[in-house]
Design brief:
It contains eleven helices and 16 strands. By secondary structure, it is of the alpha/beta class. The strands form two sheets. Strands 1, 2, 3, 4, 5, 6, 7, 8, 9, 10, 11 and 12 form a twelve-stranded mixed sheet that branches. A four-stranded antiparallel sheet has the order 13-14-15-16, with helices on one face. Helix 1 packs across helix 7 and helix 6 packs parallel to helix 7. The longest helix is centred in the middle third of the chain and has 23 residues. The chain is globular, with a radius of gyration of 21 Å. The two termini are 25 Å apart.
Protein backbone atom coordinates (compact mmCIF):
# COMPACT_ATOMS: atom_id res chain seq x y z
CA UNK A 1 0.00 0.00 0.00
CA UNK A 2 1.29 3.43 -0.89
CA UNK A 3 1.50 5.82 2.00
CA UNK A 4 -0.88 8.70 1.65
CA UNK A 5 -1.16 11.65 3.97
CA UNK A 6 -3.45 14.52 3.12
CA UNK A 7 -2.98 17.56 5.29
CA UNK A 8 -5.13 20.65 5.28
CA UNK A 9 -3.49 23.96 6.13
CA UNK A 10 -4.64 25.93 9.13
CA UNK A 11 -3.89 29.39 10.47
CA UNK A 12 -1.81 29.40 13.65
CA UNK A 13 -2.53 31.64 16.63
CA UNK A 14 -1.13 35.11 16.23
CA UNK A 15 1.49 35.93 18.82
CA UNK A 16 2.61 32.33 19.19
CA UNK A 17 4.40 31.82 15.89
CA UNK A 18 5.85 34.34 13.52
CA UNK A 19 4.35 34.43 10.04
CA UNK A 20 5.55 31.59 7.82
CA UNK A 21 7.81 30.33 10.62
CA UNK A 22 7.41 26.72 11.68
CA UNK A 23 8.94 25.61 14.98
CA UNK A 24 11.82 23.17 15.15
CA UNK A 25 10.93 19.98 17.04
CA UNK A 26 13.22 17.79 19.16
CA UNK A 27 12.09 14.59 20.90
CA UNK A 28 14.59 12.97 23.28
CA UNK A 29 13.35 9.46 24.09
CA UNK A 30 15.47 7.44 26.52
CA UNK A 31 15.37 3.66 26.95
CA UNK A 32 13.96 1.94 30.06
CA UNK A 33 14.37 5.01 32.28
CA UNK A 34 12.15 4.79 35.34
CA UNK A 35 9.63 7.35 36.57
CA UNK A 36 11.78 8.37 39.53
CA UNK A 37 15.15 8.40 37.76
CA UNK A 38 15.58 12.17 37.49
CA UNK A 39 16.33 14.67 40.20
CA UNK A 40 13.16 16.64 39.46
CA UNK A 41 11.09 13.43 39.82
CA UNK A 42 12.55 12.64 43.22
CA UNK A 43 15.60 10.45 42.63
CA UNK A 44 17.61 10.44 45.88
CA UNK A 45 20.90 9.43 44.24
CA UNK A 46 20.87 10.41 40.55
CA UNK A 47 21.85 14.00 39.81
CA UNK A 48 20.33 15.50 36.66
CA UNK A 49 20.90 19.27 36.84
CA UNK A 50 20.40 19.84 33.10
CA UNK A 51 17.04 18.07 32.86
CA UNK A 52 16.00 19.65 36.17
CA UNK A 53 16.79 23.04 34.61
CA UNK A 54 14.74 22.04 31.57
CA UNK A 55 11.80 21.43 33.94
CA UNK A 56 12.30 24.88 35.51
CA UNK A 57 12.29 26.40 32.03
CA UNK A 58 9.23 24.44 30.95
CA UNK A 59 6.45 22.03 31.86
CA UNK A 60 6.85 18.86 33.92
CA UNK A 61 4.17 16.18 33.54
CA UNK A 62 3.47 13.75 36.37
CA UNK A 63 0.83 11.71 34.50
CA UNK A 64 2.35 11.17 31.05
CA UNK A 65 1.68 7.78 29.42
CA UNK A 66 3.42 5.87 26.65
CA UNK A 67 1.46 3.48 24.47
CA UNK A 68 3.15 0.29 25.70
CA UNK A 69 5.50 -0.96 28.39
CA UNK A 70 7.96 -2.36 25.83
CA UNK A 71 10.18 -0.58 23.37
CA UNK A 72 9.03 -1.24 19.81
CA UNK A 73 5.34 -0.84 20.58
CA UNK A 74 5.98 2.31 22.60
CA UNK A 75 8.00 3.90 19.80
CA UNK A 76 5.39 3.00 17.22
CA UNK A 77 2.71 4.75 19.27
CA UNK A 78 4.83 7.88 19.61
CA UNK A 79 5.76 8.11 15.94
CA UNK A 80 2.31 7.30 14.49
CA UNK A 81 -0.05 8.87 17.02
CA UNK A 82 -1.95 5.59 16.93
CA UNK A 83 -2.68 2.96 19.55
CA UNK A 84 -1.02 -0.41 19.15
CA UNK A 85 -4.40 -1.94 18.38
CA UNK A 86 -4.09 -0.20 14.99
CA UNK A 87 -0.44 0.47 14.07
CA UNK A 88 0.54 -3.18 13.71
CA UNK A 89 3.20 -3.24 16.44
CA UNK A 90 2.33 -5.53 19.33
CA UNK A 91 5.62 -6.21 21.09
CA UNK A 92 9.40 -6.14 20.56
CA UNK A 93 11.20 -6.71 17.28
CA UNK A 94 14.41 -8.74 17.03
CA UNK A 95 17.11 -8.36 14.34
CA UNK A 96 16.21 -9.31 10.75
CA UNK A 97 12.72 -7.87 11.10
CA UNK A 98 10.54 -5.80 8.81
CA UNK A 99 9.11 -4.23 11.92
CA UNK A 100 6.31 -1.70 11.77
CA UNK A 101 4.12 -1.96 8.64
CA UNK A 102 5.59 0.34 6.00
CA UNK A 103 2.22 1.92 5.24
CA UNK A 104 2.15 3.49 8.70
CA UNK A 105 2.75 7.24 8.41
CA UNK A 106 5.37 8.44 10.86
CA UNK A 107 5.73 11.87 12.37
CA UNK A 108 8.89 12.30 10.31
CA UNK A 109 7.01 11.62 7.08
CA UNK A 110 4.21 13.99 8.04
CA UNK A 111 6.68 16.76 8.92
CA UNK A 112 8.57 16.30 5.67
CA UNK A 113 5.28 17.07 3.92
CA UNK A 114 5.45 20.40 5.74
CA UNK A 115 8.97 21.21 4.61
CA UNK A 116 10.98 19.84 7.55
CA UNK A 117 14.38 18.21 7.39
CA UNK A 118 14.50 15.18 9.68
CA UNK A 119 17.15 13.23 11.56
CA UNK A 120 17.11 10.15 13.81
CA UNK A 121 19.99 9.58 16.23
CA UNK A 122 20.13 6.43 18.33
CA UNK A 123 17.84 3.47 18.83
CA UNK A 124 15.15 2.85 16.18
CA UNK A 125 13.64 -0.59 16.94
CA UNK A 126 10.90 -0.49 14.30
CA UNK A 127 12.55 -2.72 11.71
CA UNK A 128 16.12 -3.27 10.51
CA UNK A 129 15.59 -4.87 7.10
CA UNK A 130 16.31 -2.71 4.09
CA UNK A 131 13.19 -0.73 3.34
CA UNK A 132 12.24 -0.48 7.02
CA UNK A 133 15.01 1.63 8.53
CA UNK A 134 14.53 5.28 9.59
CA UNK A 135 15.64 6.52 6.18
CA UNK A 136 12.73 4.54 4.70
CA UNK A 137 10.25 5.97 7.22
CA UNK A 138 10.65 9.71 6.73
CA UNK A 139 14.08 10.48 8.14
CA UNK A 140 16.61 12.18 5.91
CA UNK A 141 19.49 10.94 8.05
CA UNK A 142 20.03 8.11 10.52
CA UNK A 143 22.91 7.39 12.89
CA UNK A 144 22.56 4.73 15.57
CA UNK A 145 21.94 1.14 16.64
CA UNK A 146 18.74 -0.02 14.90
CA UNK A 147 17.35 -1.88 17.92
CA UNK A 148 18.12 -2.56 21.59
CA UNK A 149 21.79 -2.48 22.53
CA UNK A 150 21.67 -6.07 23.88
CA UNK A 151 20.94 -7.40 20.38
CA UNK A 152 23.19 -8.59 17.59
CA UNK A 153 24.10 -8.42 13.92
CA UNK A 154 21.49 -9.47 11.34
CA UNK A 155 22.37 -11.64 8.31
CA UNK A 156 21.12 -9.28 5.59
CA UNK A 157 22.69 -6.08 6.92
CA UNK A 158 25.24 -4.45 4.63
CA UNK A 159 28.60 -2.95 5.60
CA UNK A 160 29.72 0.44 4.36
CA UNK A 161 32.94 0.30 2.27
CA UNK A 162 34.79 2.25 4.98
CA UNK A 163 33.30 0.42 7.96
CA UNK A 164 35.41 0.37 11.12
CA UNK A 165 36.01 -3.00 12.78
CA UNK A 166 36.89 -3.29 16.47
CA UNK A 167 37.88 -5.97 18.99
CA UNK A 168 39.90 -7.95 16.46
CA UNK A 169 37.13 -8.08 13.89
CA UNK A 170 37.57 -7.97 10.13
CA UNK A 171 34.93 -7.95 7.41
CA UNK A 172 35.45 -11.70 6.99
CA UNK A 173 34.90 -12.38 10.68
CA UNK A 174 31.85 -10.10 10.76
CA UNK A 175 30.29 -12.03 7.87
CA UNK A 176 30.98 -15.24 9.77
CA UNK A 177 28.89 -13.80 12.59
CA UNK A 178 26.11 -13.07 10.13
CA UNK A 179 26.17 -16.65 8.90
CA UNK A 180 26.09 -17.90 12.50
CA UNK A 181 23.02 -15.77 13.17
CA UNK A 182 21.35 -17.09 10.01
CA UNK A 183 21.87 -20.75 10.91
CA UNK A 184 21.56 -20.76 14.72
CA UNK A 185 18.85 -20.46 17.33
CA UNK A 186 18.18 -17.12 18.96
CA UNK A 187 19.36 -18.51 22.30
CA UNK A 188 22.69 -19.61 20.80
CA UNK A 189 23.13 -16.27 19.07
CA UNK A 190 22.44 -14.27 22.21
CA UNK A 191 24.90 -16.39 24.17
CA UNK A 192 27.71 -15.87 21.66
CA UNK A 193 27.00 -12.41 20.22
CA UNK A 194 24.99 -10.64 22.90
CA UNK A 195 25.81 -6.91 23.01
CA UNK A 196 27.83 -7.03 19.76
CA UNK A 197 25.67 -4.37 18.19
CA UNK A 198 26.17 -2.81 14.75
CA UNK A 199 26.32 0.98 14.41
CA UNK A 200 24.52 2.32 11.34
CA UNK A 201 24.76 5.45 9.29
CA UNK A 202 21.90 5.55 6.82
CA UNK A 203 21.18 1.96 5.82
CA UNK A 204 24.68 0.50 6.31
CA UNK A 205 26.91 -0.59 9.14
CA UNK A 206 29.78 1.81 9.76
CA UNK A 207 31.19 0.24 12.96
CA UNK A 208 31.19 -3.31 14.32
CA UNK A 209 31.03 -4.08 17.15
CA UNK A 210 29.85 -0.62 18.16
CA UNK A 211 31.80 1.10 20.94
CA UNK A 212 28.80 1.54 23.20
CA UNK A 213 30.69 3.51 25.82
CA UNK A 214 30.67 6.47 23.43
CA UNK A 215 27.21 6.23 21.86
CA UNK A 216 25.42 8.70 24.14
CA UNK A 217 27.85 11.49 23.31
CA UNK A 218 28.07 10.56 19.64
CA UNK A 219 24.29 10.63 19.19
CA UNK A 220 24.13 14.17 20.53
CA UNK A 221 27.25 15.20 18.57
CA UNK A 222 25.62 14.09 15.34
CA UNK A 223 22.35 15.79 16.25
CA UNK A 224 24.17 19.08 16.84
CA UNK A 225 26.08 18.68 13.57
CA UNK A 226 22.80 18.03 11.77
CA UNK A 227 21.27 21.25 13.14
CA UNK A 228 24.43 23.16 12.28
CA UNK A 229 24.12 22.04 8.66
CA UNK A 230 20.37 22.43 8.19
CA UNK A 231 18.80 24.98 10.53
CA UNK A 232 19.19 27.94 8.17
CA UNK A 233 17.50 26.25 5.23
CA UNK A 234 14.37 24.74 6.75
CA UNK A 235 12.81 23.76 10.09
CA UNK A 236 14.16 20.55 11.59
CA UNK A 237 12.79 17.55 13.45
CA UNK A 238 15.28 15.60 15.56
CA UNK A 239 14.44 12.25 17.16
CA UNK A 240 17.27 11.59 19.65
CA UNK A 241 16.97 8.14 21.21
CA UNK A 242 19.85 7.17 23.53
CA UNK A 243 20.52 3.45 23.88
CA UNK A 244 20.81 3.98 27.64
CA UNK A 245 19.91 3.25 30.35
CA UNK A 246 18.82 -0.06 28.78
CA UNK A 247 21.05 -2.95 29.85
CA UNK A 248 23.86 -3.66 29.19
CA UNK A 249 24.95 -0.34 30.63
CA UNK A 250 27.85 1.55 29.09
CA UNK A 251 29.30 4.95 29.95
CA UNK A 252 32.30 6.96 28.90
CA UNK A 253 35.30 7.37 31.19
CA UNK A 254 34.12 10.91 31.97
CA UNK A 255 31.10 9.54 33.85
CA UNK A 256 32.19 6.10 35.04
CA UNK A 257 31.97 5.80 38.81
CA UNK A 258 30.64 9.32 39.31
CA UNK A 259 27.04 8.63 40.38
CA UNK A 260 25.93 7.55 43.84
CA UNK A 261 23.48 5.23 42.05
CA UNK A 262 26.21 3.08 40.48
CA UNK A 263 26.54 2.30 36.77
CA UNK A 264 22.86 2.93 36.11
CA UNK A 265 23.17 6.39 37.62
CA UNK A 266 26.34 7.01 35.61
CA UNK A 267 24.44 6.28 32.39
CA UNK A 268 21.54 8.59 33.30
CA UNK A 269 23.89 11.37 34.39
CA UNK A 270 25.76 11.11 31.08
CA UNK A 271 22.46 11.52 29.22
CA UNK A 272 21.68 14.52 31.41
CA UNK A 273 25.01 16.19 30.64
CA UNK A 274 24.47 15.76 26.92
CA UNK A 275 20.90 17.07 27.12
CA UNK A 276 22.33 20.14 28.83
CA UNK A 277 24.99 20.51 26.15
CA UNK A 278 22.31 20.32 23.46
CA UNK A 279 20.02 22.84 25.17
CA UNK A 280 22.96 25.21 25.64
CA UNK A 281 23.69 24.89 21.94
CA UNK A 282 20.10 25.87 21.08
CA UNK A 283 20.35 28.84 23.44
CA UNK A 284 23.68 29.98 22.02
CA UNK A 285 22.42 29.76 18.45
CA UNK A 286 19.25 31.70 19.27
CA UNK A 287 17.06 28.71 18.47
CA UNK A 288 15.42 28.13 21.87
CA UNK A 289 12.47 30.46 21.24
CA UNK A 290 11.52 28.55 18.11
CA UNK A 291 12.30 24.99 19.20
CA UNK A 292 9.92 22.64 20.99
CA UNK A 293 11.95 20.13 23.03
CA UNK A 294 10.31 17.07 24.62
CA UNK A 295 12.13 14.69 26.97
CA UNK A 296 10.58 11.34 27.96
CA UNK A 297 11.31 7.62 28.44
CA UNK A 298 9.96 4.84 26.24
CA UNK A 299 8.67 2.72 29.14
CA UNK A 300 9.32 1.88 32.77
CA UNK A 301 12.51 0.43 34.29
CA UNK A 302 13.70 -3.15 33.86
CA UNK A 303 13.29 -4.07 37.51
CA UNK A 304 14.64 -7.62 37.27
CA UNK A 305 18.12 -6.15 36.73
CA UNK A 306 17.94 -4.63 40.22
CA UNK A 307 20.86 -2.18 40.63
CA UNK A 308 21.40 -2.08 36.87
CA UNK A 309 17.73 -1.24 36.36
CA UNK A 310 15.92 1.91 37.36
CA UNK A 311 13.18 2.89 39.78
CA UNK A 312 9.52 3.72 39.18
CA UNK A 313 8.86 4.76 42.79
CA UNK A 314 6.28 5.58 44.03
CA UNK A 315 4.54 3.69 41.22
CA UNK A 316 4.01 -0.08 41.05
CA UNK A 317 5.67 -2.24 38.42
CA UNK A 318 8.09 -1.49 35.59
CA UNK A 319 8.92 -2.62 32.07
CA UNK A 320 6.55 -5.34 30.72
CA UNK A 321 4.00 -4.38 33.40
CA UNK A 322 0.76 -2.48 32.89
CA UNK A 323 0.71 -1.12 36.35
CA UNK A 324 1.58 2.58 36.39
CA UNK A 325 5.32 1.97 36.67
CA UNK A 326 5.36 0.29 33.26
CA UNK A 327 3.58 2.94 31.21
CA UNK A 328 3.74 6.19 33.19
CA UNK A 329 7.08 7.87 32.56
CA UNK A 330 8.80 11.20 33.15
CA UNK A 331 8.09 13.86 30.54
CA UNK A 332 9.31 17.46 30.32
CA UNK A 333 8.39 19.98 27.63
CA UNK A 334 10.37 23.16 26.93
CA UNK A 335 9.57 25.85 24.41
CA UNK A 336 10.67 29.25 25.60
CA UNK A 337 8.03 31.91 25.15
CA UNK A 338 5.25 29.43 24.34
CA UNK A 339 5.16 26.75 27.06
CA UNK A 340 4.96 28.36 30.54
CA UNK A 341 8.07 27.90 32.67
CA UNK A 342 8.28 26.18 36.02
CA UNK A 343 4.88 24.45 35.87
CA UNK A 344 4.11 20.92 37.09
CA UNK A 345 0.87 19.36 35.86
CA UNK A 346 -0.96 16.15 36.74
CA UNK A 347 -3.08 16.29 33.58
CA UNK A 348 -3.36 12.99 31.69
CA UNK A 349 -1.27 13.35 28.52
CA UNK A 350 -0.13 10.50 26.24
CA UNK A 351 2.72 9.97 23.81
CA UNK A 352 0.16 9.41 21.02
CA UNK A 353 -0.91 13.04 21.56
CA UNK A 354 2.44 14.35 20.38
CA UNK A 355 1.81 13.57 16.69
CA UNK A 356 -1.32 15.74 16.25
CA UNK A 357 0.04 18.41 18.59
CA UNK A 358 3.32 18.80 16.72
CA UNK A 359 1.51 18.76 13.39
CA UNK A 360 -0.73 21.56 14.64
CA UNK A 361 2.34 23.69 15.28
CA UNK A 362 3.77 22.69 11.90
CA UNK A 363 0.63 24.08 10.26
CA UNK A 364 -1.52 20.96 9.79
CA UNK A 365 -4.40 19.46 11.70
CA UNK A 366 -6.36 16.97 9.59
CA UNK A 367 -5.15 13.63 8.22
CA UNK A 368 -6.41 10.75 6.13
CA UNK A 369 -4.96 8.44 8.72
CA UNK A 370 -6.87 7.62 11.86
CA UNK A 371 -5.06 9.30 14.76
CA UNK A 372 -5.88 8.21 18.30
CA UNK A 373 -3.96 11.02 19.95
CA UNK A 374 -5.50 14.44 20.51
CA UNK A 375 -4.10 17.89 19.83
CA UNK A 376 -2.98 19.19 23.24
CA UNK A 377 -1.36 22.40 22.00
CA UNK A 378 -3.80 24.50 24.06
CA UNK A 379 -2.67 22.57 27.14
CA UNK A 380 1.00 23.21 26.33
CA UNK A 381 0.23 26.92 26.33
CA UNK A 382 -2.18 26.81 29.30
CA UNK A 383 -1.44 23.82 31.57
CA UNK A 384 -4.47 24.57 33.74
CA UNK A 385 -6.60 22.97 31.02
CA UNK A 386 -7.71 19.33 31.19
CA UNK A 387 -8.19 17.86 27.72
CA UNK A 388 -8.10 14.15 28.60
CA UNK A 389 -10.06 12.34 31.25
CA UNK A 390 -9.22 8.81 30.16
CA UNK A 391 -6.50 6.68 28.64
CA UNK A 392 -6.57 3.07 27.48
CA UNK A 393 -3.74 0.60 28.13
CA UNK A 394 -2.84 -1.72 25.24
CA UNK A 395 -0.85 -4.94 25.57
CA UNK A 396 0.12 -7.23 22.68
CA UNK A 397 -2.25 -5.37 20.39
CA UNK A 398 -5.24 -5.83 22.71
CA UNK A 399 -6.92 -3.42 25.12
CA UNK A 400 -5.61 -4.39 28.53
CA UNK A 401 -7.04 -1.77 30.86
CA UNK A 402 -8.23 1.79 31.22
CA UNK A 403 -7.76 4.87 33.33
CA UNK A 404 -10.72 7.20 33.84
CA UNK A 405 -10.03 10.18 36.08
CA UNK A 406 -8.42 8.82 39.23
CA UNK A 407 -9.57 5.26 38.57
CA UNK A 408 -7.64 2.45 36.87
CA UNK A 409 -9.27 -0.83 35.86
CA UNK A 410 -7.28 -3.89 34.75
CA UNK A 411 -9.51 -6.87 33.81
CA UNK A 412 -6.83 -9.44 34.61
CA UNK A 413 -3.62 -8.11 36.10
CA UNK A 414 -1.04 -5.45 35.44
CA UNK A 415 1.80 -7.99 35.56
CA UNK A 416 3.66 -9.02 32.43
CA UNK A 417 2.36 -12.59 32.48
CA UNK A 418 -1.12 -13.77 33.36
CA UNK A 419 -1.40 -16.61 35.83
CA UNK A 420 -4.17 -18.84 37.06
CA UNK A 421 -6.22 -17.16 39.71
CA UNK A 422 -5.74 -13.63 38.39
CA UNK A 423 -8.65 -11.37 39.31
CA UNK A 424 -9.80 -8.00 37.98
CA UNK A 425 -8.12 -5.05 39.63
CA UNK A 426 -9.49 -1.59 40.40
CA UNK A 427 -7.38 1.16 41.92
CA UNK A 428 -7.91 4.77 42.91
CA UNK A 429 -4.68 6.55 42.02
CA UNK A 430 -5.47 9.66 44.04
CA UNK A 431 -5.68 7.61 47.22
CA UNK A 432 -3.32 4.79 46.24
CA UNK A 433 -0.75 5.75 43.60
CA UNK A 434 1.18 2.55 44.35
CA UNK A 435 -1.82 0.38 43.36
CA UNK A 436 -1.68 -1.80 46.45
CA UNK A 437 -5.39 -1.84 47.38
CA UNK A 438 -7.64 -3.68 44.91
CA UNK A 439 -11.10 -2.11 45.18
CA UNK A 440 -12.85 -4.23 42.54
CA UNK A 441 -15.11 -6.06 44.97
CA UNK A 442 -15.88 -2.91 46.93
CA UNK A 443 -16.97 -0.87 43.89
CA UNK A 444 -18.71 -3.24 41.39
CA UNK A 445 -20.57 -0.32 39.75
CA UNK A 446 -17.28 1.41 38.96
CA UNK A 447 -15.93 -1.85 37.50
CA UNK A 448 -19.02 -2.13 35.28
CA UNK A 449 -18.69 1.50 34.16
CA UNK A 450 -15.06 1.03 33.14
CA UNK A 451 -15.74 -2.31 31.48
CA UNK A 452 -18.35 -0.64 29.29
CA UNK A 453 -16.03 2.27 28.54
CA UNK A 454 -13.31 -0.13 27.35
CA UNK A 455 -15.67 -1.52 24.72
CA UNK A 456 -15.35 1.61 22.58
CA UNK A 457 -11.64 1.00 21.99
Amino acid sequence: MNKRLIIYPMLLSAGLLQARQKPNVVIIFTDDQGYQDLGCYGSPLIQTPSIDRMAKDGLKLTDFYVSASVSSASRAGLLTGRLNTKNGVKGVFFPESAGMPSEEITLAEALKEQGYTTGCFGKWHLGDLKGHLPTDQGFDYYYGIPYSNDMYLAPSQQFAPDAIFREGYTLVKAKEDQEFVRTSSRAAVKKRLNNASPLFEGDRIIEYPCDQSTTTRRYFDHAIDFVEQHNKQQPFFLYITPSMPHVPLFVSEQFRGKSKRGLYGDAVEEIDWNVGRFLDYLDTKGLAENTLVIFASDNGPWLSFKEEGGSADPLRGGKFSYYEGGVRVPCIIRWKGVVPAGVTSDAIIASIDLFPTIMHYAGSHSFRQEIDGINVSSFFENPSLRLRDEYVYVKSGQVHGIRKGDWVYLPKTGNSKFKEGDVPELFNLKQDVGESDNLAQKYPDKVKELQELMQKY
